[in-house]
Automatic annotation (TrEMBL):
Its EC number is 3.2.1.15. The active site is at H281. Its main location: secreted. The lineage of its organism: Eukaryota, Viridiplantae, Streptophyta, Embryophyta, Tracheophyta. This is Probable pectate lyase C. One of its GO terms (molecular function) is polygalacturonase activity. It comes from Salix brachista.
Amino acid sequence: MDKLFIIALLGLLILVNGAAENLVYNRFAMLEELESFEIDDEDDVGLFDIPSWTSERGGKVLVNVDSFGAVGDGISDDTQAFVKAWGTACAVPKSVFLVPSGGRYLVNATRFKGPCADNLIIQIDGTIVAPDEPKNWDPNLARLWLDFTKLNGVLFQGNGVIDGSGSKWWASSCKKNKTNPCREAPTAFTIDSSSSVKVKGLTIKNSQQMNFVISKCASVRISEVSVSSPGDSPNTDGIHITQSTNVALQNCKIGTGDDCISIVNGSSAIKMKGIYCGPGHGISIGSLGKDNSTGIVTKVVLDTAVIRETTNGVRIKTWQGGNGYVRGIRFENVRMDNVDNPIIIDQFYCDSPKSCQNQTSAVKVSQIMYRNISGTTKSAKAMKFSCSDTVPCSTIVLSNVNLEKEDGTVETYCNSAEGFGYGIVHPSADCLTSHEKDYNFLDQTEVSQNHSLNDEAEEMVGLADSNDDRIVDHTEL
C-alpha cells in the first residue's frame, strides 16, 4: 500500500511540475511577444529626406497664399485664395504651400485634394482660423473643416496655428445642455486616405469637435505637435486615429475635453512616445463595438508619458454587443498625476443618454501589458478590469505598477479578467484569475513606498511645468 502511495505521489509531482513548466514557458513566451513589438524610427518614411523649404538646395517653388489674394486680417474670407494656391502647389513638383507668419487667415470648410506632384511641403507659420458661427457652416461638409486627402510623401510643418473657433459649437452641444439637439460638428484638421506623411511643430486648438484626425492612412509620423481645447469642451479628442497603420506620435503635448489620443477600429502598429496628456479623458483604445459593430485594434505601444489631472489614464473601452478584438497592447513608463482612473478596461462602456441593454457578445480584449506605471490616483479603485462575463479579458500582464492615493488606500477591481503580475504590483491584482490558479510562480509584491519613474518621464514632468502656455488649465467636467 505504501509503495502504491509513493508511486502515485511521484506521478502527481511529475504532472504538477510539467504543468508548472508549461505555465512558466507560456507566460514568458507571451511576455516576449508583448515586449518585442516595435515600430521603426522615422527614417523608414522616405519623405523625411526632403530639405527644409528655406534651404538653398532642392530647387523649391514657393507658393504663397498672399500671392493669390489672401488678406490675412482674420475678417476677409481667404478660402478661394487658399484653393487657388493649393491647385498650383499640388501640380508643381517640389512646391512649398506657404501660409506666412503674421497673418490670421479666415478659411471656410475646404477639401485640399491630391494626389499631388512629388515632394510637397505645407508650411504653416501663420494662423488659419475657422468661422465661429455654426449656423453658417456648409452642410455638405458638416464634419470637416480643413481636410487633406489622397496625399503621398507630404510634409506639414511650421510654427503656425490651426484655430477652430469652437466656443459656439461647444455651447450648442447636447453634452453641454441636454435641451440642445445632438448634431454633427467639424473636425479641425483631417488627413485621410494618405501615406508617407509627416506633421511637425503645428499647434491645433479650439476645434469645433475633434482636433486632429488621421483616417485611412499608412506610415504617418507626428512630432512636436501641440493640441489644446478647454477641459470642458465636449468631444474634442486631441489626436484620433482610425483605419490607419504604422503611425507614430512623438513629443506631443495634448490637453482637451475628451481623449488626448483615441485609437479606433481598423488601426494597427501605433506607437506613441513622449506624450503629455492633460486635461482630458486620457489615452484610449476605443470606443469599439458600438451598435453591434466589429472593432479591431492591434499592436499599440505607449512608451513614456505623463498623464495629469485627467478622468482616465490608459483606457480600453468597448460597447456591449460588439465583435472583434483588441490585442497586443503595451503601456509602459507612464507617470500618473492625480488621475481618476489610472488603469481601466471597460467593456460596459455606454456613452448614451439612454441606458445600454445587456448583451452577450463583446469585443475580445487580450494580451495587454502594463509596465513601469506609477503615480497618484483620485479613485480608491486605481485599477479597474471590468470585462464581459461571456467574453472575458485574458492575458493581462502587470509589471512594476505602483499607484497611490494621497488620502487613503487603493485597490484593484476585476470582473471576468484573467492575467498575472510580476515584480512590484500595487495595489495587489490578486483578483485577476488564472487558468492555472494553483501555480503562481511569478511573484506579485505590494510595496508601500513610491516607485520612481524612468528619467525620460521625469524630464517630461519638468517640461509640463515650464512656462509653455499652449495647454489650457484643467477644468472639471
